[in-house]
Write a structure and sequence with these properties.
- This is DMT family transporter.
- It is a multi-pass membrane protein.
- The protein has 4 helices and no strands.
- By secondary structure, it is mostly helical.
- α1 packs across α3 and α3 runs antiparallel to α4.
Length: about 110
């Protein structure tokens, strides 16, 4: 159940960060409200996740997967370029998350 809550926390954080891009510095009401709501949901779910998963593992997965997802959204939907350094960084994040899980993350 902890990983399901963590997935929801990641999805809410990614949605909030994407909405923040469209808020134009919090000058647009609806994207700004979506940003606020998304982060409230994300942190609430992350807090629930910490009841069953270690804080280091949960936070590393939340931050890493969220960062990789936002980078991918930027590349695929927002016209950001994909450089070798950006691709390597995303790959390292994914490898880090896999290693955390294979290393007995609880």
């Amino acid at each position: 159940m902890g990983y399901l809550l963590l997935a929801g926390a990641i999805a809410a954080e990614v949605g909030a960060t994407t909405a923040m891009k469209y808020s134009e510095g919090f000058s647009k009401l609806w994207p700004s409200l979506l940003t606020l709501l998304g982060y409230v949901v994300s942190f609430s779910l992350l807090a629930q996740t910490l009841r069953t998963l270690s804080i280091g593992t949960a936070y590393a997965i939340w931050a890493g997967v969220g960062t990789a997802a936002i980078a991918a959204i930027g590349i695929l939907f927002m016209g950001e370029g994909l450089t070798a350094a950006k691709a390597a960084g995303i790959a390292l994040i994914i490898v880090g998350v896999v290693v955390l899980n294979l290393g007995g993350a609880h």
